[in-house]
Design brief:
The chain is α/β, with parallel strands linked by helices. It folds into three domains: 206 residues, HUPs (Rossmann fold), CATH 3.40.50.620; 110 residues, Glutamyl-tRNA Synthetase, domain 3 (Alpha-Beta Complex), CATH 3.90.800; 125 residues, Ribosomal Protein L25, Chain P. The chain is 25% helix and 24% strand. It contains 13 helices and 29 strands. The strands form eight sheets. It has a seven-stranded mixed beta sheet, covered by helices on one side. It has a seven-stranded mixed beta sheet with strand order 23-20-21-22-16-19-24, with no helix packed on it. The protein has a four-stranded antiparallel beta sheet with strand order 6-7-8-9. A hairpin with a 4-residue loop joins strand 20 and strand 21. Helix 7 packs across helix 8 and helix 11 packs across helix 12. The protein starts with a strand and ends with a helix. The protein binds adenosine-5'-triphosphate and magnesium ion.
Length: 561
C-alpha cells in the first residue's frame, strides 16, 4: 500500500500476523477490526495511530472496520464528544459505512450474558463496598481473600441481579463479580467487577439502565457481537487479555475475537492523556479542544495539518511493542513535506519595518507576477503590487551585521523578491535608538530582480507594499510544555510545566491583498517564513493566520545547543 506517492507502508508485526492468519485460511470471510473510542473527550494524535491501524488494515486486507463508541460510563460521556469523534474520523479519511455502533446498543445482550454467567456459577452479586473489595484483593505478592458473598447460590444471585437492574439498590451498594480466582497471579482475574450500580441518565439509553457493564466485560463481548477477528489495543491492556479471554470462554458468543497489543504513541513536549487534555480545556489553559496547540485532531486541523500529513505520520512511526516517544520534528516534517507540495505561496511580513525607496516616484505603482507554486506552473500566478514604500521583515535588516549576514544593512544591496535590487542609504532611529525606518535607492535596470550588468547580489528578501498590503493577525505557536517528556503526578501540578511562550500573537503583520480572500482552513507558505493556515475565527476584515510550522526544522538546532 502506498500513500502520498512517496512513502511505502512498512511491514509490522500486526500486518504480518493478519497476513499469516489469512494465508492459513482462518478467516474465509476476511478480517474485521474496530476503533473503540470512549466519548469522553476529543480524539488526539494517539487515536490517529489507532484509527489508521484499524481502518487501514481493514482497507488493505479488504475487511471491515467498525467505529464503536465504548459508552459504558454515563458520567463522563456526552453527545458533543460523539459528534466530534465522528467528524474527526471522517476528516482523517476513513469511512465506517454502515458499521457505526455503540456499546450501549448492546446493553440488553450483555445483560443476558451476565445472567448466563450467573446461571452457570461464574458470577455472583457481592455486597462488599468498593473499599472492601480493594482491601481484599491482595497484592502482586499476596493472594486476595474470597468475598463472603462468593458462595451465594445461582438462584439468589439471579434474584439479586434482577433487583440491581430494577433499581432497588443504591449506587455502590453491590456489584456483579466474575467468580474466577482470588489467588490468581494476574490481579485482573481476582473476581473482577462486571456490573456496577449507577443511577444516572445515559446520553444514549436515557434512564433505561441503572446498572452499567464494566469495560473488561463489555469490550470482548462487543468484539464478539461485531465479529471482530483482530481486536487491536494498546499495551496497557496486556494484563487484561486473560480476562478478555475468560469472558469469551464462559458465555455463548457468536464469534471468537483475539486481542493483540501494540505500544501507545507519545509525542515529545505533548501529553495525550485525555484526563490531562480535559484539564487543559476546563481550566482554560487553551482555547478549547481545537486550540492549535492541542495534540487533538481538531487542534491539528485548526493548526493547518492535513489528513494526509497525519496519515503519513502514523505510517512513518510504525507499529511495535516498544515504548514509543516520538520526536516532534517527525510530525512537523510530515506537515512540511505535505504543505510544500500543496500550499500556495504568498507574501507576508510578520514584524514590519518600513522601507522607503527614495528614487522611486511617489505616485507610481507596478505589479509583478508571482508564481503561486514554484513547482507547479499550472497553479498560475498572481500580481503583487509594488510602490515607493514597502514593509520588510525587521529581522532582515541589521545595522551592524555579522560577517555572514547577506540581507539588508547600510550600504548593502539586496534583491526584493520578484521586484528590484535596492541599496540601503539611510537608517532612521527613534529616541531609544531603535531602527524605525530604512531608506534605499533602487536600480531601475533590475526589474524582476536581475541587474542589467549581471552583477551578483546574494541576498533576497520578501516584502509587502504599504499601499497594497493589509494588516492581519498572526499566531505563532510553540509546544504547550517546557519539558520534552512532561510528567505529572496529577493535573494539579500541570501549571508548573507549561511553556508560557506557547502562543505569541502578532497583531500588526502585513499580508499581500490576495490573502484576504482566503477561506478558513486554507494553508499558505509565507515565503521565507513558514506554513500558515487561516484560522476559523478569521474574516476578511480581520484575517487571522496560525503558523502550522516554520519553514525549516528548528528542533535539530535547539538540541545541538
Ligand atoms: P483514556 O485516557 O480516557 O483511558 P484512551 O486514550 O485510552 O482514554 P479511548 O477512547 O479509550 O482513549 O481510546 C480509543 C482507542 O484508541 C483505544 O483502542 C486505545 O487503545 C487507542 N489509543 C488511545 N490512546 C492512544 C495512543 N496514545 N496511542 C495509540 N492508541 C491509542
Ligand atoms: Mg481507554
Amino acid at each position: 500500500m502506498r500513500e502520498n506517492n512517496n512513502t511505502v507502508t512498512p511491514a509490522h508485526f500486526i500486518r504480518q500476523k493478519i497476513a499469516a492468519d489469512l494465508a492459513a485460511g482462518k478467516y474465509p470471510e476476511g478480517i474485521t477490526t474496530r476503533f473503540p473510542p470512549e466519548p469522553n473527550g476529543y480524539l488526539h494524535i494517539g487515536h490517529a495511530k489507532s484509527i489508521c491501524l484499524n481502518f487501514g488494515l481493514a482497507n488493505e486486507f479488504s475487511g471491515r472496520c467498525f467505529l464503536r463508541f465504548d459508552d459504558t460510563n454515563p458520567d463522563r460521556e456526552s453527545p458533543e464528544f460523539v459528534k466530534a469523534i465522528k467528524e474527526d474520523v471522517k476528516w482523517l479519511g476513513f469511512d465506517w459505512g454502515d458499521r457505526l455502533r455503540h456499546a450501549s446498543g448492546y446493553f440488553e445482550q450483555l445483560y443476558q450474558w451476565a445472567v448466563e454467567l450467573v446461571e452457570n456459577g461464574h458470577a455472583y452479586v457481592c455486597d462488599l463496598s468498593a473499599e472492601e473489595i480493594r482491601a481484599t484483593r491482595g497484592t502482586l505478592t499476596l493472594p486476595g481473600s474470597n468475598s463472603p458473598y462468593r458462595g451465594r447460590s445461582a438462584e439468589e444471585n439471579l434474584e439479586l441481579l434482577a433487583q440491581m437492574r430494577a433499581g432497588e439498590f443504591a449506587d455502590g451498594s453491590r456489584v456483579l463479580r466474575a467468580r474466577i480466582d482470588m489467588a490468581s497471579p494476574n490481579l485482573h482475574l481476582r473476581d473482577p467487577a462486571l456490573y456496577r450500580i449507577r443511577h444516572q441518565t445515559h446520553h444514549n439509553t436515557g434512564d433505561t439502565w441503572c446498572i452499567y457493564p464494566m469495560y473488561d466485560f463489555t469490550h470482548p463481548l462487543s468484539d464478539a457481537i461485531e465479529g471482530v477477528t483482530h481486536s487491536l489495543c494498546t499495551l496497557e491492556f496486556e494484563d487484561n487479555r486473560a480476562l478478555y479471554d475468560w469472558v469469551l470462554e464462559h458465555v455463548s458468543i457468536p464469534s471468537r475475537p483475539y486481542q493483540t497489543e501494540f505500544s501507545r504513541l507519545s509525542l515529545e513536549y505533548t501529553v495525550v492523556s485525555k484526563r490531562l487534555l480535559t484539564t487543559l480545556v476546563s481550566e482554560r489553559v487553551v482555547d478549547g479542544w481545537d486550540d492549535p496547540r492541542m495534540p487533538t485532531l481538531s487542534g491539528l486541523r485548526r493548526r493547518g495539518y492535513s489528513p494526509a500529513s497525519l496519515r503519513d505520520f502514523c505510517n512513518r512511526i510504525g507499529v511495535t511493542r516498544n515504548q514509543q516517544h516520538v520526536e516532534l520534528s517527525v510530525l512537523e516534517n510530515c506537515a512540511r513535506e505535505d504543505l510544500d507540495r500543496t500550499a500556495a505561496r504568498a507574501f507576508a511580513v510578520i514584524r514590519p519595518l518600513k522601507l522607503v525607496i527614495d528614487n522611486y516616484p511617489q505616485d507610481q505603482e507596478e505589479f509583478f507576477e508571482a508564481a503561486n507554486h514554484p513547482a507547479d506552473p499550472s497553479r498560475g500566478s498572481r500580481a503583487v503590487g509594488f510602490c515607493r514604500e514597502l514593509y520588510i521583515e525587521h529581522d532582515d535588516f541589521i545595522e551592524d551585521p555579522p560577517r555572514k549576514f547577506f540581507r539588508l544593512s547600510p550600504g548593502r544591496e539586496v534583491r526584493l523578491r520578484y521586484a528590484y535590487l535596492v541599496t540601503c542609504t539611510k537608517v532612521i532611529h527613534d529616541e531609544q535608538g531603535n531602527v524605525t525606518q530604512v531608506h534605499c535607492t533602487y536600480d531601475p535596470q533590475s526589474r524582476g530582480g536581475n541587474p542589467a550588468d549581471g552583477r551578483k547580489v546574494k541576498g533576497t528578501i520578501h516584502w509587502t507594499s504599504v499601499r497594497h498590503s493589509k494588516k492581519a493577525q498572526i499566531r505563532l505557536y510553540q509546544p504547550l510544555f517546557k519539558d520534552s517528556q512532561p510528567r505529572f503526578s496529577s493535573p494539579d501540578n500541570l501549571h508548573d510545566s507549561l511553556n508560557e511562550n506557547s502562543l505569541v500573537t502578532i497583531d500588526d503583520a502585513q499580508i499581500e491583498p490576495s490573502l484576504v480572500e482566503a477561506a478558513v482552513g486554507n494553508t499558505f507558505q509565507f515565503e521565507r517564513l513558514g506554513y500558515f493556515c487561516v484560522d476559523r475565527d478569521s474574516a476578511p476584515e480581520q484575517m487571522i493566520f496560525n503558523r502550522t510550522v516554520p519553514l525549516r526544522d528548528t528542533w535539530a538546532r535547539v538540541k545541538a545547543r
